[in-house]
Amino acid sequence: MTKTKKLLDKPTADKLEKIHSQLESYFDIPREIYTGTHVTNMVIIRNIGCYVSLELEKISQDFVAQSFKRDRTTIYHMLSGVS
Known about the structure:
This protein is mainly α. It has 5 helices and no strands. 22% of the residues are buried.
């Protein structure tokens, strides 16, 4: 069985893009750094972005995971650590 990525609709993609641009602006770092796989000191930035996406904007975990280049279960674990 193969996994297929869900396609983002325009409003959801716009919300995620706005969240990413706010994180980039506030913390003054590019998206590639805090979504990268080998940068552990950016955890708090990813956690904030995921929390805002999931809890405040009500975007699905699959879309948030895809946006932050993480697995859905990682996003779930991230949320449990923040809230």
